[in-house]
Amino acid sequence: MEFPPAVGPYSGDYVYITEPGRYTLEQNVSHQYPVGVIIAAPSVVLDGQGYSIQPAAADPASVGIWIRLTDLSGNPVTGVTIKNVSIEDEGFGIYSEGIDSSIFPWGQDRTADPDGIKAAETTRNLILSGVSVNSCHEGVTLSNQSDTRITTTTISDCTGSGVTVTGGRVDIQDSRLMNNVESGIVLSKSSGSDISSSVIEGNGRAGISLDEVNGIRILNNRFHNTQNIDQDNQSTDVVISPPLETGEQHTAIQTQEPDGWNRSDILSPVQESGTSTGKNQANPITGVLDLTPTSSPTPVLTATPVVTVSPDNTPTQDTTPKTIMTGIHAVVSGDSIPKEMKGGSTYPVGLILFNDGSDDWISQYQVGVMALDDTAGYGPAWIGVPEGVMVKSGQSQTLSFDLRAPSKPGTYTLKYQAARQGTGVQVLFGRAYTKTVTVT
After folding, report:
1. Are 334 and 261 found together in one domain?
2. Which three-class secondary structure string do you get for 43-107?
3. Residue (of 74, 11, 81, 7) closest to 39 by Cα position
4. Residue 279 burial (CB count, 10 A)
5. In the chain, how many H helices and how many E strands?
6. How far is CA 268 from CA 184, 245, 251, 263, 339, in A?
7. How far is CA 403 from the centre of its chain?
């Protein structure tokens, strides 16, 4: 899979994480590109600080956060933590890529790919904590994602299901799965999963749907759904406390725990005026822990507009994308490349590189711009920040070089990518910068 996709009308801003580290959002993300945040590196902690991710326009295939199966070198993406973020109105709130993601226009089937097979069999250790997914089509979709832990998370009002796990193991604790049109939780071909101390209410199809699962424990949850447990006849070793018959309707009674949570024991069937019945009844349980983050997010960095150079060399104000990342990051914000050039002629030009990260660049970071595709044939393939120059966070540096126009007349699109390289790593930042020129 290639991010950003090479083919398709995919434009707009997004966050592309290709290096391990801790990253924080410092403002809400409204993305035009179909994916808001792409995580393509192991050992990443993404702290949303209470901010939100949502598409700029409705798109059934949009994804709030996409976790790749492998990194850019083909190694498994493991040890990802996502916390304190709200995701709204997406096609898929959080999508952890499995071996087959071909349901997306940019996805692929990797069942014959050795790297994909290896990654799908790896323990990936995803943690979601303090996450809110609301009004999406599918809430959280996990494929071939073993050892996932979801805690203090709310997934509600999705037109599909809240959490869907296929071929992996998940622990869901102290969370809310509410008012989803399909199921609150779907476990398919899952082994060893635990669901405990959670509120699972108002889901249209089932609270928990079990399909060919083994070794599942469902303990101390509060249920009130059209059908609370929907278990197929191929599932084995499913433990529900207390034991219940598959498909029966259940409600819950409140118990107070020492930690302040109002948990529940499951009662089946519901007793109404001394009569056993298969219907749910309203359950007036109150005081459930509020899972909505209460802290006010504090921006790590506020970027200001920078001055760029237009093709006629007249300074203009540029609405440079504001930073939403901490650490080392860069974006190409402008250029002085002529729109019209004479074939075979050489022009002195410049690209403006903006430091939209929280760290100052020093020489050892080796930040610069890569020329992509055929563009490398018209000038240097790499233009780095000059040796000894430190670019502070929120400031820009012009990278000057000579550009030789193509010899054949026509319209050309030049592509440049802000990047970091050296010391055995190559990190691409954000999206490619393009400039269309006419050669006469």
Report:
1. no
2. CEEEECCCCEEEECCCCCCCEEEEECCECCCCCECCCCEEECCEEECCCEEEEECCCECCCCCCC
3. 81
4. 9
5. 1, 41
6. 19, 9, 7, 16, 73
7. 37
Structure tokens at 240: 């529900």
- Contacts of 183 by beta carbon, 8 Å cutoff, 6+ apart: 161, 162, 203, 204, 205, 206, 207, 208, 209, 230
- Strand-strand pairing, 306-309 and 315-318: antiparallel
Of 377, 380, 357, whose CA–CA distance to 367 is shortest?
A: 357
Residue 133 in contact with residue 87, Cβ under 8 Å?
Answer: yes
Residues 243 and 356 in one domain: no
User: 388 and 316 in one domain?
Assistant: yes
How many domains are there within the chain? 2
Cβ 82 vs Cβ 153: under 8 Å = no
Give the pLDDT of the chain (440 residues) as one tens digit per residue: 666 666 555 556 678 888 887 888 877 888 888 999 999 888 898 999 899 999 988 889 999 999 999 988 888 999 999 999 999 999 999 999 999 999 998 888 999 998 889 888 888 899 999 999 999 999 999 988 888 999 999 999 999 999 999 988 999 999 999 999 999 999 999 999 999 999 999 999 999 999 999 999 999 999 999 899 999 999 999 999 854 443 344 433 333 333 333 333 333 333 322 333 333 333 322 222 222 332 322 222 222 222 222 233 333 333 334 444 557 788 898 999 999 999 999 999 999 999 887 788 888 778 999 998 899 999 999 999 998 899 998 899 999 999 999 999 999 999 998 988 754 446 777 678 999 999 99
The answer to whether residue 3 sits within a structural domain is no
The Cα-based distances of 407 to 339, 372, 379, 438 in angstroms read 15, 19, 13, 11
Quote the tokens at residue 23.
Answer: 């990253």
User: Is the domain of 268 the same as that of 332?
Assistant: no
How many other CB atoms are found less than 10 A from the CB of residue 386?
12
Is residue 294 assigned to a domain? no
First to last CA, the chain: 37
pTM: 0.61
Phi and psi at 186, nearest 5°, equal -120, 120
Is residue 23 in a domain? yes
Q: Which domain holds residue 177?
A: 15-277
Contact 338, 347 (CB under 8 A): yes
Q: What is the DSSP letter of 356?
A: -
